[in-house]
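User: For my dataset I need records formatted as: sequence, then structure tokens, nothing else. Please produce one.
Assistant:
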Amino acid sequence: MPTTGAIMITKGSSERVMIRWAILGAAVFLIAAVAVSPFALDSFRSGDDTDWQRRSVIGQTYGAISALVAALALGAIAVSVFFQWQEIQATKEFARRAIHNDLLKMAIEDPELRECCHIGSPNAAPSRQHLYCNLLFSFWETNYALGLLHHDEIEGVAGQMLSTRPGYDYWTSTREYRLTYVDSRQEQKFRLAFDKEYHRWSKQMSEASSHPSQTPGGI
């Protein structure tokens, strides 16, 4: 049974394939239209004779248009290659993160394996909640990198985690490392947006501590 992540990456790949074929189809249509246009115009002539010289003159008038359409076709091929490269990179990134997630799942299920990880604390193994928050964060970050999670949705997913004590503590202990070491611009944008929400929740916690009766339910 395919995982949710696999379904999402497949959906994203299908959308890119559809866009690529649409661009190529439009380019082929334009080339075909230019190629047959002199013959189509010639069909409006009266009489049955065929004037190839006249047809040649008509064809020459389409020389510039033909060159433009050829350039558009080349551009469509370039776009198609770019989409294919993006798809390959996304697949490689998804495979890498899938392996990472499998390792975290093993540590969640086995306390002995969990002792091999010292995430967020040099003296203690991470809790199962900490590792689960790591899985959630990686899942959201992967979706953002693949374009399946919009930037304006980060506030919502961040709130789901940061509104809980385990989630808040997870980001508190890992934020410095994650904000310092990033592999791509997309990762940096996601983590900065996530950290912005962290500061907002920190402010709420500080205000709540001054007014215990108004303490938010999650923190």
